[in-house]
Amino acid sequence: MQGQLTKLSAHEFQIYTRMMSKFKATGTGSAFDQAFDDVLINLCRVEEDDHILKNVPHILWFPHLTKSFAGFLRFMRQYDLKKYIRNIVVHTDKEYQLRHVSTADAPLARAVHEIWDQVFSNLDPIRVVVAAPPSSLSALLDAHMLSSDTWAFDMKMHYIEFSQKDPHRTAHRNHGCRPWDNALVHRKPWTHLGYNEGSSIAAYSTYEYHLKQSPKMLYLTLLRLAKEVQDCCNITSFSFIGVFPFSTNMNTVIRALQKIPMLREIQVQLAPGPENDLLDTPKKLGRAQASDLWLEWNGCYSGMAGLLGTQELSDGARFVSKDCGETEVAKEVEEYIESLQERGQGWRKDGNEVWIRDSSLDREVTPDENLGDVGSALHQLMLAAAHELL
């Protein structure tokens, strides 16, 4: 900057002046001296005419809406299109790299607040999808990742979806229902939350894979709903997509779901769909063993069966498994639902992949019949033991 003072923008010159003031305050004679390493230069936004800053090799960014959004809003107002825009997708492929810098927390909060303010003050969507790398999604959700193992999972993109079945739930817009703060999770009385974390396959090739933790934004978001939102305007449906997630990671999500008693529909897909040739492509599998993949898959469904068996789901509640496209897999899923029926809980099959809670099918289970559950319990214990031995 010092060699190009005449070329600095007004904003860049302000930054240069602040840097020089701090530099002089250190009493050192050179910016290359060790004493200068501890001088904090405040984070700042690169503005449109900051040509020198734009050419800096390493620029770390805060989430922000691009200028095309302002142009879109002008177009929308010109043709009175607001009432037709019901769905919003917020997307970035950039990774947020300042999450370990404590001084970045306050500017990040302001940047994310500004994004959602711009969206919801100009638009009235009933559905919002955010697609971003895990580090960026955690920033946009005002949540932590709670994991140092994200490198192992190689998840390029996570997706979260919030939606409303009834966009006119105005009765719930009071502070008794939810905080109504700056976080996306509290911007509307959402009725549905969906999440797609992509594939966990890469982590199966790492040493002691079962100890690895995937990013926990979904878990923290569900906990936030459970703690901060009243039942009257909490979510009633939940969907999750993952490719062979670890059962330990899935169980954290299940524990959070247990705290949301008003759920009426749970939908999962935990194996590759018919469009995915993962299991037939050795290069994509890497060092992962198919037996390990299905062991974890079974552990996840065992946890889901436990959730369905303990959650007080009302008549008409639905469980949907999108893994039932293949005959053998469908049989496995059906066995887990049958285990609930064997314990006296009524579930009625509706098509190939849907089960509906039906209390008219409930029945008392005698002690002799309960002995039949021992084999299932032993099977689960064997799975758990095998998991520990890996």
TrEMBL record:
Source domain of life: Eukaryota
Protein's recorded name: Uncharacterized protein
Species: Didymosphaeria variabile
